[in-house]
TrEMBL record:
<feature type="signal peptide">
    <location>
        <begin position="1"/>
        <end position="19"/>
    </location>
</feature>
<dbReference type="Pfam" id="PF07715">
    <property type="entry name" value="Plug"/>
</dbReference>
<dbReference type="GO" id="GO:0044718">
    <property type="term" value="P:siderophore transmembrane transport"/>
</dbReference>
<dbReference type="InterPro" id="IPR039426">
    <property type="entry name" value="TonB-dep_rcpt-like"/>
</dbReference>
<dbReference type="GO" id="GO:0015344">
    <property type="term" value="F:siderophore uptake transmembrane transporter activity"/>
</dbReference>
<dbReference type="InterPro" id="IPR008969">
    <property type="entry name" value="CarboxyPept-like_regulatory"/>
</dbReference>
<dbReference type="InterPro" id="IPR037066">
    <property type="entry name" value="Plug_dom_sf"/>
</dbReference>
<protein>
    <recommendedName>
        <fullName>TonB-dependent receptor plug domain-containing protein</fullName>
    </recommendedName>
</protein>
<keyword id="KW-0732">Signal</keyword>
<feature type="domain" description="TonB-dependent receptor plug">
    <location>
        <begin position="197"/>
        <end position="302"/>
    </location>
</feature>
<dbReference type="InterPro" id="IPR012910">
    <property type="entry name" value="Plug_dom"/>
</dbReference>
<dbReference type="Pfam" id="PF13715">
    <property type="entry name" value="CarbopepD_reg_2"/>
</dbReference>
């Protein structure tokens, strides 16, 4: 009976302490000052190593007749520590760090082809809104490490870009459709004025000014570096000489490997006289049909 009465008395004291009403009116006050005022009004004491308050934020409170527990919750909001009440002592301890599980990554493999099933080499494969990416190899295949929820963007000159969201797949095969705008473009040809691109008897690759390489460009070869499949450009060690441009490789043993240039309809023009910033677009004729237009001088391809 005596033990029961003692337990009841302790519970009443504890309940009485928690139900005490606290009134505080402070603005940008140090936390230690607030603790002292709470101690004065409640009879509770605070225990903490002094270093715990080094990074404490100042508090602003306007409270009237508020229970002790609610006052403590307000004081410890956005603080780097938390509290626990042991009898009539408020013990302050560092807040446990919340560990966020990293988003798992996965390796995606795939292949990019045309509507006809032809592998596309050099397709840009990038993670949307990032600088992370890769390109397809000569077989149209690619490998990239991504996170679930990432969006992959597949883009290639002359084809419609395509976006695919990463889910649980490990293989992502993509078919790119030819750009309708590119097929309907009008190309100026010397043997028949203007022709629709889809009706041309030769393969034409077009690179527009916005797609050309940017930066400190000194010759046209640097503008086209990496922009056209099969176009090999080798920079010269001499700053006064332009880069070597090889479009189709050597056609004969002693023939020049340099493509034939046509500038604004003028055949055989000197490309080194053109300022890179003045170029609006560049058309490249790569197949053998180019010789039917310009003769043997176009055996190594034509750049218009």
């Amino acid at each position: 009976m005596t033990a029961f009465l003692l337990l009841a008395a302790c519970l009443q004291v504890s309940a009485g302490g928690y139900s005490q009403k606290i009134t505080l009116s402070v603005r940008e006050a140090p936390l230690e000052k607030v603790f002292k005022e709470i101690e004065r009004q409640s009879g509770y004491s605070f225990w903490y190593p002094s270093r715990h308050l080094d990074n404490a934020s100042k508090v602003t409170l306007q409270l009237r007749d508020v229970p002790l527990e609610d006052v403590l919750q307000k004081c410890f909001e956005h603080q780097p520590f938390e509290y626990v009440i042991v009898e009539r002592t408020v013990v302050i301890r560092p807040r446990e760090a919340v560990v966020t599980a990293p988003i798992p990554t996965a390796t995606i493999k795939g292949k990019v082809v045309t509507a006809g099933g032809k592998a596309l080499s050099g397709v840009s494969v990038t993670v949307k809104a990032t600088k992370k990416g890769t390109t397809t190899d000569e077989n149209g295949e690619f490998t990239i490490t991504v996170r679930k929820g990432d969006i992959l963007v597949f883009s290639y000159i002359g084809y419609e870009s395509q976006e695919m969201k990463v889910a649980d797949q490990e293989v992502m095969n993509i078919t790119l459709a030819e750009s309708t705008a590119a097929l309907n473009e009008v190309t100026v040809v010397p043997y028949g004025g203007r022709q629709n691109r889809r009706n041309l008897p030769t393969a034409v690759s077009t690179v527009r000014s916005e797609d050309l390489n940017a930066g400190a460009i000194t010759d046209v070869g640097q503008l086209l570096q990496g922009k056209v499949p099969g176009l090999n450009i080798t920079a010269s060690g001499d700053p006064n000489k332009p880069a070597a441009v090889i479009l189709r490789g050597a056609s004969t043993l002693n023939a020049s490997q340099t493509p034939y240039y046509v500038i604004d309809g003028v055949p055989g023009a000197d490309i080194s006289l053109i300022a890179p910033n003045d170029i609006v677009s560049i058309d490249i004729l790569k197949d053998a049909a180019a010789t039917a237009i310009y003769g043997n001088r176009a055996a190594s391809g034509v750049i218009l």
